Amino acid sequence: MDGVFYGFAVLLFAAIILLVEGAYLWWGDTHGGGAQRIARRLRIMQDNGTRGGGERISILKQRRYSDAELLDRLLHRLAPARRVDSLLQQAGVKWSVAQFLAWSAGLLCAGLLLAQLWTVPWPIRAVIALAFLSIPYGMLRRARRLRLLKIEEQLPEAADFLARAMRAGHSFTNVLQMVGTELPEPLSGEFRTAHEELNYGVPMHEALSNLAVRIPLTDLRYLVIAVLVQREAGGNLAEILGNISQIIRARLKLVAQVRVLSAEGRMSAWILGLLPFAVMLTMTVTNPSYISVLWTDPTGIRMLWYGTGMIALGVLWLRKLIRIRV
Q1: CB–CB of 195/173 below 8 Å?
Q2: From the CB of residue 103, how many other CB atoms can be counted at a distance below 10 Å?
Q3: Exposure class string for 62-95: b at 16+ Cβ within 10 A, else e
Q4: How many CA atoms lie within 13 A of 211 on its CB side?
Q5: CB of 197 closer than 8 Å to CB of 209
C-alpha cells in the first residue's frame, strides 16, 4: 500500500511539474517577448498602418486649442497661442492652449492674493505675481528641455537603425514605421506621427519638415536634410546616415566634456544669483523689523533696485561666459 501511495505521489508531482512547464511554454509562445517581436515584424511587413491609439493625427492637420468651439476659433487667430501650442508639442504634454492659459491665470490670482498678505511695496508684489504666472511656462520649458535632451541621446541609435534597415532593402517609408515601433519613446512617437502623415497623403518633404519643426534639434535637421537631398540627387543613403550617426556621437561626447569643464561656472552662477534672495528671506523671517527698512525707506528702495539690477547683470554675464555652443 505504501509503495502504491508513494508511486501515486511521484506521478502526481511529475504531472504538476509538466502542467506548469506546459503552461509556461504556451504563455511564452503566445504572449512572451519573442512572440510580441514577431507580431510587430509581421505588422510592419504587412504595412497595415501603425499602432492604433491616441497618437493619430487629425486629417485636417489642425490641433484644437480648446474644447469650446468659440474659444478654439478665437485662439487660432492669435499668434501667441500658436507659439504656446508649439511649445506644448515640443514638451510632449497633453495640455491644450486653453488649459495652459487657465493654469497661468489661476496661479497669477494666487500670487496676487499671496502678495496682499505682506506689507511690501507694489514692485515686489508685481514680482511675486509674475513669478507665480511664469510657473506653467517654466514647467513647460523644463519638460521641453529634458525631452529634447532625451531625443538627442536617441538620435545616433535611430540613425544607425535607419542605415541598417536601408541596407536590408526596406523602403524609407517602411523604415520610418519600424523606427516608430522598435525604438523607445519619445523619439518613436515622433517618427510614428511622420509615418501617419505619409499614410494620409502628406508629401515626404512636408512630413519630414514637420518632424524637424516638432523636434528643433540641429542634428535631426541634418538627418532630414540628408534624406531630402538624397531623394532629389540620389546617393547611398545608408552610408550618409551612418556618417551622421558618427558625427552626432562625436558632438555629444564633446558637449559632455564642455559641460564638465563649465560645471564650476554654472554652480557659481546659481549660488551668486540665489544667495541674496535666500539671505533676504531668512532675515525677513527672523528679524522683519530690521530688513523692512529696505522697502519702507526711499534709500532702501533705491538700494533694492540697484541690487536687483546688478544681480541680473551678473547672472546674464556668467550665463554668457559658460554658454558654449558646440
Answers
A1: yes
A2: 16
A3: ebbbbeeeebbeebbeeeebeebbebbbbbbbeb
A4: 32
A5: no
**Contacts of 43 by beta carbon, 8 Å cutoff, 6+ apart:** 51, 181
Quick one: which of 272, 273, 298, 294 has its CA closest to 283? 294
Q: What is the pLDDT along the chain (326 residues), one digit of tens a residue?
A: 455 555 555 555 666 765 666 666 666 666 665 556 666 655 655 544 444 444 444 444 567 888 788 888 888 888 888 888 888 888 888 888 888 999 999 988 888 888 777 766 677 777 788 888 889 999 999 999 999 999 988 999 888 888 888 888 888 888 888 888 888 888 888 888 888 888 888 888 888 888 888 888 888 888 888 888 888 887 788 888 888 888 888 888 888 888 888 787 778 778 877 888 888 888 888 888 888 888 788 888 888 888 888 888 887 887 777 777 76
Q: Which of 100, 109, 107, 113 is nearest to 132 (CA)?
A: 107
C-alpha–C-alpha distance, residues 89 and 67, integer Å: 17
| R_g of the chain, CA atoms, integer Å | 29
C-alpha cell at 105: 491665470
93 dihedral zone (left: phi>0; alpha: psi -120 to 50; beta): beta
